[in-house]
Design goal:
The complex is a heterodimer of chains A (299) and B (159). With 299 residues, chain A is α+β, with helices and mostly antiparallel strands. Helices cover 33% and strands 27% of the residues of chain A. In chain A, strand 7 and strand 8 form a beta hairpin. Chain B has 7 helices and no strands. Chain B is mainly alpha-helical. Classes of the chains: A alpha+beta (299), B mainly alpha (159). The interface between A and B is large, with 52 and 51 residues.
């Protein structure tokens, strides 16, 4: 009993500002913080520093999952490794065949681009980043990766996986970065339908298995199975990288537009790694050739 | 006595760290909307069982920590946490006299206020909606309250 009284150090008379005054103060401070962070972006540097400070906590949450993966890899049996090796050899053979065809196409593409005086915008460097097994904001599709400003990662950097476009970097700390996935409702991506060349925007809808093309006209030439790739507009993603495959077309009665649902090709829910890509996004427009009325080209 | 206070502070710190980690542990996407608000539950437990004058400051700092860890708008969780804890502080004498099951109803209501503030600030900032599932965790938090309360009581004891 005596020890319980020793522990009870609550003052009999509470001094200091009233509850209402403290509440008012913190509500105002929170409001100012939200405006400074969201509207003005004044707190990016502070947030980046604090992200670095909190990285150990993220790592601690991720640690059991990393350990589980490590134990799984370590305890893989001889038979499992042989099966995986056989699969990889088969996959490698198939990829080499495709690569031969792509090399020829690339050479042809370079010749055509030289003729039209434009440069190809392709990824020239990438960095493998591991996804930390940490849940970010509830109901938003964001992930944390173990690369940051020390690795040269920047805000707006495209992230891809082996199958397609994954998302882009939204915040960077010293050793970690936040990536918004293409399925997040706040993400919009300029795309082109590969078969027809029709350009539009792909929006996330909060579902890892679906993204949407909401702005297509009712008579748009789209079919289930069509491949949708990045258009390169906006300068964030290089053009021609696969985004998704048309899954469903919905013509709502009374609406003029067509709602198209895509299945993302990137493995948004299961990939443990992403590729952070660098590419030259300086678009070199083709030099316009003036053709006078007489039909003689100027030099 | 100093050693006892140190042990107690260490337990409080451990409890807060564990609650924060529980907010970040990955869950399947279908289950994530139902994840109880563990950090808010811990703060509410402190309010009902062991209130301190710094409760509002602690709530604001905890909210800010969530904003940073979850990548949200800085100050959003801070605002929601401060208002929720302030309401809880106002009515704590009545609520602490209730049995845990009745307290759970109050906790559910408080977390509904919390999520309403998040919904309102999302709208003010022009952020996209998160659908109807956003309210689900108020219910699951209320359902887990008796368990969380008993666990906290076991670790820290009653003041």
């Amino acid at each position: 009993m005596a020890s319980r009284q020793d522990h009870d150090i609550r003052p009999l008379l509470v001094s200091g500002p009233s509850l209402a005054a403290r509440l008012f103060f913190f509500v105002i401070v929170s409001g100012v913080l939200m405006i400074a962070d969201h509207r003005a972006g004044y707190l990016d540097a502070l947030r980046s520093t604090l992200m670095g400070g909190l990285y150990p906590l993220h790592r601690a949450v991720d640690a059991p999952f990393s350990a589980y993966r490590w134990v799984g890899d370590t305890l893989a049996t001889h038979g499992m490794l042989r099966r995986e090796n056989a699969r990889l050899v088969e996959e490698n053979r198939e990829l080499r065949l495709r690569q031969m065809r792509l090399d020829a196409l690339e050479r042809e593409n370079v010749r055509l681009r030289e003729a039209s005086q434009t440069t190809a915008r392709v990824i020239d460097r990438y960095l493998v980043a591991e996804l930390l097994r940490v849940d970010m904001d509830r109901l938003r599709h964001r992930v944390l990766v173990n690369r940051g400003t020390v690795d040269g990662v920047y805000v707006g950097q495209p992230a891809l996986d082996a199958q397609g476009v994954f998302g882009q970097v939204t915040r960077v700390g010293p050793v970690s970065a936040e990536v918004i996935m293409i399925s997040d409702p706040a993400h919009a991506l300029p795309v082109v339908i590969n078969r027809t060349g029709m350009r539009t925007l792909a929006y996330g809808r909060g579902d890892l298995e679906k993204i949407e093309l909401p702005f297509l006209p009712g008579n748009a030439d789209v079919e289930p199975g069509d491949l949708v790739v990045t258009s390169g507009l906006g300068g964030v993603f290089p053009p021609g990288y696969p985004v998704g495959e048309v899954q469903e077309l919905l013509r709502e009665p009374g609406e003029q537009g067509l709602r198209v649902t895509l299945r993302p090709l990137a493995r948004l829910s299961s990939d443990p790694e992403v590729l952070l890509a660098w590419y030259d996004n300086q678009v070199q427009e083709p030099v316009a050739t003036v053709v006078p009325a007489s039909g003689v080209e100027t030099p | 006595m100093a050693r006892g206070t140190g042990v107690r502070l260490a337990r409080v710190a451990l409890l807060v760290a564990a609650s924060t980690a529980a907010c970040l542990v990955p869950l399947p996407s279908w289950l994530d909307p139902a994840r109880p608000a563990f950090l808010a539950l811990t703060l509410l437990w402190f309010v009902f069982v062991a209130p301190r004058p710094g409760g509002v400051l602690a709530a604001w700092l905890a909210g800010l920590l969530l904003d940073l860890l979850q990548g949200g708008m800085l100050g959003q969780n801070g605002l929601a946490m401060v208002v929720t804890v302030a309401i809880a502080l106002k009515f704590r004498l009545q609520v602490r006299a209730f049995p845990p099951l009745n307290q759970a109803v109050v906790v559910g209501g408080l977390l509904f206020v919390y999520e309403f503030l998040m919904f309102w600030t999302d709208g003010m900032a022009g952020l996209p909606g998160r659908g109807g599932w956003r309210w689900l965790y108020a219910l699951t938090s209320a359902l887990t309250w008796p368990l969380v309360s008993a666990l906290h009581l076991r670790i820290l004891g009653r003041h």
